[in-house]
Specification:
TIM Barrel, two-stranded antiparallel sheet, 12% strand, binds coproporphyrinogen III
Length: 344
């Protein structure tokens, strides 16, 4: 049966008169209602693992703006936690994890079969959302790509250049690849369980793909995305997959063909005109307004939004930002962006 929801139509390759819209980090600190629910939960991880409250913050931007998709509220670092890493968040700084740098560290991780014990509340959030979302709104599940997740597991935190992960990949390739394989297997089971619970699309976030070059990009960004996509398509042939190899640059070209993803999400370091010519020829693209416009607003926001819509209007397109909205964004600018897209 042909899909009726706009996001699913675009993902099936249809060129729509107006692109559907959602926004990375649409549930987040720029919204006062998010900050209130997060305070009620106590902290970020307690919010992720509380199905009622996680569903509530997922729904907040849908109620406020009527986005065409909701993205499950969770985090890419819950999978490492479910695989046995310690995880905590330092306010104002970001995530911290126990590190995986030696065989002994790796041996402390648990088997993939055990992840659901930790992740069951996330699947419950998905089930609540499928019952609560408006009938026209698509529910997107997600996970981190193996390379990006590994960068956090190896360093124990976010790093500007992913130095510790690159060092391990060069100095102990076997251990690095064993870690990547564990994360890949966990990601397949995690995303399949989100789909079983009701996710209609899944997105794989490779936020640090841009630091992999040449052969390393092929081995550690393309191959895992291909493996995950193929395994999911085998279990759930009709569920579209969005890939986001952020800052891939020229390596965006052919990414959909090489991995089998249904849509490539673009960061804002590539122009929409370039993407129309080199990436959209292979199918749906998503993106790619710079998230700073959500802070700065004004005429530039409207002009740039309309320019992206126009440049990508001849093929399947889902409008989004090039990366997550930041906590200092003005919620009114989000409405201005949506109006600019929908006015055409
Ligand atoms: O997009 C959404 O609305 C869905 C929820 C979502 C979150 N994180 C919630 C979150 C999604 C899809 C993510 C993905 C994620 N998490 C990525 C990939 C995308 C990207 O941004 O590149 C990464 C690298 C992470 C890891 C992570 N989580 C970091 C580095 C941080 C700290 C930085 C920050 O923004 O504070 C987080 C925390 C986090 N994840 C927040 C939210 C709403 C902020 C936590 C808070 O409320 O204090």
């Amino acid at each position: 049966m042909a899909p009726t929801k706009t996001i699913l139509r675009a993902l099936a390759g249809e060129t729509l008169p107006t692109p559907p819209i959602w926004m990375m980090r649409q549930a987040g600190r720029y919204l006062p209602e998010y900050r209130a629910t997060r305070a009620e939960a106590g902290d970020f991880l307690s919010l992720c693992y509380n199905p009622e409250l996680a569903a509530e913050v997922t729904l907040q931007p849908i109620r406020r703006y009527g986005f065409d998709a909701a993205i499950l509220f969770a985090d890419i670092l819950l999978l490492p936690q479910a695989l046995g890493a310690d995880l905590w968040f330092v306010t104002g700084e970001g995530p911290r994890l126990s590190t995986v740098q030696t065989q002994a560290d790796f041996d402390k991780l648990g088997p993939v079969e055990d992840i659901h014990e930790t992740l069951n509340p996330i699947y419950e959030t998905v089930r609540i959302l499928r019952g609560a979302l408006p009938s026209e709104t698509t529910l997107i599940g997600f996970a981190g790509a193996p390379w990006t997740v590994a960068t956090y597991m190896i360093a124990g935190r976010g790093t500007p250049d992913q130095g510790p992960a690159h060092a391990l990949r060069q100095e102990n390739t076997a251990l690095f690849e064993a870690l990547l394989a564990r994360i890949t297997a966990g990601t397949i089971d995690y995303l399949a369980a989100q789909i079983d619970a009701g996710a209609e699309v899944v997105k794989i976030f490779d936020s640090w793909a841009g630091s992999l070059k040449g052969e390393a990009f092929e081995k550690y960004a393309v191959a895992p995305a291909q493996e995950i996509t193929a395994a999911l398509k085998e279990r759930h042939p009709h569920i579209p997959v969005i890939g986001f190899p952020r800052e891939a640059g020229d390596a965006y070209i052919g990414f959909a063909r090489a991995t089998g993803v249904d849509c490539v999400a673009l960061d804002n370091s590539v122009s929409a005109e370039w993407a129309a010519q080199h990436v959209q020829v292979d199918g749906c693209v998503q993106g790619n307004l710079a998230s700073r416009h959500m802070v700065t607003g004004g005429a530039a926001l409207v002009e740039e939004t309309k320019a992206i819509v126009a440049a990508l209007s001849k093929g399947p397109h889902i409008f989004n930002l090039g990366h997550g909205i930041t906590p200092d964004a003005d919620p009114d600018n989000v409405q201005r962006m949506i109006d600019a897209v929908r006015e055409g």
